[in-house]
Inverse folding.
């Protein structure tokens, strides 16, 4: 089967060129089932088989939105550099960047820490928002899905703790409204501003303390002294 990598890649390149997303999904699905050589899928997806690099480089360079989405869903590594040292995202248009952004949000919602770290390292912006109408950042998503480890991962990589979404809420406001003391503690440990007020909606003008009124466990966390943690790294990509 390993000897057939070049044939498989050729077929996938043809599928990319001819807009056959169904073929890409089918081939990758079959490769995932091939237990005799578990390395066959990463060899196909992450080898530098095309003039631009990996299949993901190729689809990204040619602006193939659905093909990029299919390759990412199939497990393509966006952190592989081509011979020029470029990542797939370095070749992307704004439209294609949206696909990578969606992949980060999906991984956040699925609590896939490894994939989130991989995508951030590959250049996906930690400052992205899900839509102009909602303005939720990955940190808002992590808070709303109740995953403290994901919140810690994003905070440690320099996520903006005090950014507002379209509902006028910071991640801390969201965590308090959910009643999640663990995530509230995590956000405060990294320096979330406890004094910021909700800017719109039914809770306009209220701080995190106001929102926590009547919930003693939350109030205890909000009042507790703490030693602030510093982000391990600042992700500064701002696409």
């Amino acid at each position: 089967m390993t000897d057939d990598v070049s044939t498989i890649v050729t077929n996938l390149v043809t599928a990319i060129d001819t807009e056959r997303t169904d073929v890409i999904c089918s081939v990758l699905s079959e490769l995932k089932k091939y237990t005799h050589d578990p390395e066959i899928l990463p060899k196909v997806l992450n080898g530098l088989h095309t003039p631009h690099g990996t299949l993901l480089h190729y689809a990204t360079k040619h602006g193939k939105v659905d093909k990029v989405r299919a390759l990412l869903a199939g497990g393509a590594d966006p952190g592989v550099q081509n011979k020029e040292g470029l990542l797939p995202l370095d070749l992307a248009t704004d439209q294609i960047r949206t696909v990578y952004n969606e992949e980060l949000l999906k991984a956040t919602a699925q609590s896939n820490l490894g994939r989130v770290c991989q995508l951030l390292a590959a250049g996906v912006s930690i400052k992205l928002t899900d839509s102009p109408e909602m303005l939720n950042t990955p940190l808002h998503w992590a808070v709303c899905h109740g995953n403290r480890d994901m919140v810690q991962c994003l905070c440690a990589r320099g996520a903006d703790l005090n950014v507002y979404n379209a509902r006028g809420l910071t991640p801390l406001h969201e965590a308090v409204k959910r009643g999640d003391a663990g995530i509230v503690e995590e956000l405060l440990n990294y320096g979330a501003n406890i004094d910021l007020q909700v800017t719109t909606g039914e809770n306009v003008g209220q701080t995190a303390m106001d929102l926590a009124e009547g919930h003693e466990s939350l109030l205890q966390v909000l009042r507790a002294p703490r030693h602030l943690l510093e982000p391990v790294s600042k992700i500064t990509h701002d696409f």
